[in-house]
User: Fold this.
Amino acid sequence: MTGAAATRKKPGALNIGAMAIDVKGLTKRFGRKLAVDHIDIAVPEGEVWGFLGPNGSGKTTTIRMLCGLLRVDDGQGTCLGLDIRAQAEAIKRQVGYMTQRFSFWEDLSIRENLEFVARLYQLPDRKAKVGWTLERLGLVQRQSQLAGELSGGWKQRMALAACMLHDPKLLLLDEPTAGVDPKARRDFWEQIHALSAQGLTVLVSTHYMDEAERCDRIAYILNGRLVTQGSVGEVIEQSGLSTFVLEGAHVRHFLGELQGKPGVDYAGFFGAALHVSGRDRAALEASIAPYRGRDGIAVSETPPNLEDVFILLQEAAK
Amino acid sequence: MNFSLARIYAVLVKEFLQMRRDRVTLGMIVGVPLMQLFLFGFAINFNPKALPTAIAIDDPGIFARSVTAALRNSSYFDVVATTNSPSGARRLLQEGKVLFVVEIPVNFTRDIVRGAQPDLLVEADATDPAAGGFAMAALNGIATSALRDDLTGPLAARAQGPPPFNLVSHLLYNPESNTRYSIIPGLLAVILTMTMVLMTCLALTRERERGTYENLLAMPATPVEIMIGKIAPNVTIGAIQSAIILVVAKYVFAVPMIGSLPLLAAALTIYIIANLAVGYTFSTLAENQLQAMQMTMFFLLPAILLSGFAFPFAGMPRWAQYIGEILPATHFLRIVRGILLKDNGASEIWPDVWPLLLFTFAAAGLALARFRRTLD
Assistant:
């Protein structure tokens, strides 16, 4: 199986239709807790996938199993055509992994960190490679600054530079933009899309809906189980959700009333407006009807957004 | 700025809660001192007994036999070899297998009968003067009383008055019994153990606590590569420290250095690596820096107390000697004293070199076995 998987795809050229990640039944236990419960993911080469789910749902654990940092308890599959159980070391060489918490050496400068990484990967023409990477990510001015002194956005930029240094075929990014300002987040995503255009496959976990919407496809994981996956539109459609917006001056007084009414799976604020969502459209409409026109409330239907869907999924699991 | 007992209490409660969470460290804080108290309380003996001794006997006579028998029966001496060749016995002394050679010369019995006061020659290895002091005094008494029992009948008169023999002692390798000459080379062993183990005991614990361990594992470096890469720079530091200690030993404390310095340098290198390997092993075992420091203390005290540095090795009970034999400091102490004071060569130090090598490989092997390649 291992041999066949290795020959199926020689790493290097982008192979249309080939899978960068192809795992089935991926499972991880910590003691008696099932952290990841039989997850199947197939990410085609060159796509950008968003990996979503609440805190503690198993995103980090899944990513760590994919890049060989955690042993797989059950399940099998390949990452870049290499067996995730038997060829973890070979996978490490071709994957760029950015940890959730900044994990570079804070007492080394940016350049020293990058040179260390370049040496570990035995990159030919190290100096030039590091210099070019510093330039591309706009780190030249700060190259001698200690990594520990950088602000969140610069740390993240440096970490991306470091995990891109060895030209990985697959990037696994674990909440790369947590704690980063909006401008830096936007720049970061521009980088990701530029890299993707060059054929790189990216799996990025995030809590930001706007980031999820920038992905080709998203996978949503809850309590260790993969709940839904597909393009943003597909995920919303699969949810079968209808959402109504209630707007008006005193609309916030009705939140308590609406919660728990038949057909209302979820009611909550979205900006100043009230979003009321449910899967049973008829019951939902019946519950909302009394509020139409009352106290100047305007009711309109809106396509559900990802946040509505995810909150619903999370509520439904309780 | 005001002062609030309530806030002090808040901090205090938080500290206690955190302390209670770290059960392993808490266990070590209680267990380590207890273990050491018992270990050293029973092991250390200021009045050493059963010191390894060789007898070179060249006289078949009755008095020679009774002195030999009395030595065998004494608790101070442990006669490990009896030979008729003084040079063979001297060789045992040079190799460090015995601390004393008691030489009973030809015609010992005849000369006593004649009242000629023959010499009873004692050669002592004074590289550790503490070991010998009591024994020398004991020897005089043992031999005198042994002979007194034999001197009966016509010889009874000899039993009175001064001993019928002449005790001649030679303190070899350190004729003035200068304790500095044994302490300073010993300090080389102890100081290196302390600093080298401390250097590496945080090697991986620090990476783990700072979160950089995950990154290190995600990159293609093998456990052996990481270990060698982390140990090697510290060998240089150990070499610099050794040079400083040796220069001070020579020019400030005037410690004699009669042996081969290149040989010492080679042995030092092995010793330094052995200690760095121990420290690195601790860093693979410890969950946090406090635990790593505890383990280091747990290793350092025996290195000081059971290696023969603070107390004569030969005087410790057998079980404590077995523990001592495991420690690199014990072997290096013999090597450094042997080379500097006794001009030991490669073949004489080899019995203490291979245990160092074995120890190094065992520690490195354990470290590699304990190195977790994943975050499980």
Remarks:
- The beta strands of chain B are 51-57, 77-83, 100-104, 119-125, 166-172.
